[in-house]
Amino acid sequence: MDRELAETGHLQALLSQLGAALDNYLNFTHPDALQSGVDWKRQLDRPLPERGEGIEAVNRALIDTLVAHASAIPNPGFSGYITTGGVTASTLALTAASVSSPQRYMLTAFNFVEELSLEWLSQMLGIGHLKGVYSSGGSVANLVALGGARQQAFEGIGIDPASEGMTGRGGQRPACLYASDQCHHTIQRAAGVLGLGRRSVRIIPSDGSGRMRVEALERALAEDRAEGRLPVAIVANAGTTNTGAIDPLRAMGELARAQGVWFHVDGAYGLPGILDPRKSVLYDGLELADSVIVDPHKWLGASVGVAATFVRDRDILMRAFTQEPADYLEGSMQRDEPERFDHSLDSFGIPYFDFGVELSAPCRGVVVWSMIREIGVEGFRQRIVRHNDMALELAEIARAHPQLELLLEPTLSICCFRFVDERIDDLNAFNQMLLRQLVRENRFMPTSTRVGEALAIRPCYIGARHAPEQVAGLVDEVVRLGNLLLQAGDSG
Amino acid sequence: MDRELAETGHLQALLSQLGAALDNYLNFTHPDALQSGVDWKRQLDRPLPERGEGIEAVNRALIDTLVAHASAIPNPGFSGYITTGGVTASTLALTAASVSSPQRYMLTAFNFVEELSLEWLSQMLGIGHLKGVYSSGGSVANLVALGGARQQAFEGIGIDPASEGMTGRGGQRPACLYASDQCHHTIQRAAGVLGLGRRSVRIIPSDGSGRMRVEALERALAEDRAEGRLPVAIVANAGTTNTGAIDPLRAMGELARAQGVWFHVDGAYGLPGILDPRKSVLYDGLELADSVIVDPHKWLGASVGVAATFVRDRDILMRAFTQEPADYLEGSMQRDEPERFDHSLDSFGIPYFDFGVELSAPCRGVVVWSMIREIGVEGFRQRIVRHNDMALELAEIARAHPQLELLLEPTLSICCFRFVDERIDDLNAFNQMLLRQLVRENRFMPTSTRVGEALAIRPCYIGARHAPEQVAGLVDEVVRLGNLLLQAGDSG
Question: Which region is the signal sequence (chains A, B) (predicted)?
Answer without folding.
Answer: none
